[in-house]
UniProtKB/TrEMBL annotation:
Gene3D superfamilies: Vaccinia Virus protein VP39. InterPro entries: SAM-dependent_MTases_sf (IPR029063). This is PABS domain-containing protein. It comes from the Eukaryota.
Length: 170
């Protein structure tokens, strides 16, 4: 049985964290629901592509979705198993997320919503977001490329009660 031929329902999201990130985009007011206005969304960290697939397939929405991931294998996974289809309003960029954010800042780009969803694949105090995005420069650049009424939303996974304190001390 070739499961790559199964039709994928992009309008169903079963992962709680993914549903939370998607709903946050709209509940925050950064992106208007059922709006004819084009909204720019940046997702850093592709995974299987569940979040971007959902956002790019929403009816009555004009969402310009850019996804950045450092690993080209993730794009292959998204294409083969999660039915990623590039379009003028939906793209995957294979690049280091920090480099992309720095370049976007240099170019003066703005996004209505930025979803930071990248983790380190080992057990450390703070697995998400990765350490590189916790520097002053990264935070400053993320703030700069977030539109005035925009949203920066990040996935946070911790193995300790107080991961930021642990990271700050070592």
């Amino acid at each position: 049985m070739d499961t790559t031929k199964w039709k994928l329902d992009k309008t169903t999201v079963r992962l709680t964290y993914a549903r939370t990130m998607i709903s946050g985009v709209f509940f925050s007011g950064a992106v208007e629901l059922d709006s004819p206005k084009e909204h720019k969304i940046l997702i850093i960290g592709l995974g299987g592509g569940i979040i971007n697939n959902y956002l790019s397939s929403m009816p009555n929405q004009k969402l310009d979705v850019t996804v950045v991931d450092i690993d080209p294998v993730m794009k292959e996974v998204a294409t083969k198993w999660y039915d990623f289809k590039p379009s003028p309003l939906h793209r995957i960029v294979i690049e280091d997320g920090l480099v992309f954010v720095n370049q976007a800042s240099d170019k003066g780009l703005k996004y209505d919503a930025i979803l930071l969803d990248l983790c380190i694949n080992k057990k450390v105090a703070l697995m998400c977001p990765i350490e590189g995005f916790l520097t002053e420069e990264a935070i400053s650049n993320l703030a700069f490329i977030t539109a005035d009424t925009g949203l920066l939303l990040f996935n946070s996974i911790s193995t300790e009660l107080s991961p930021l304190t642990s990271c700050a001390h070592g």
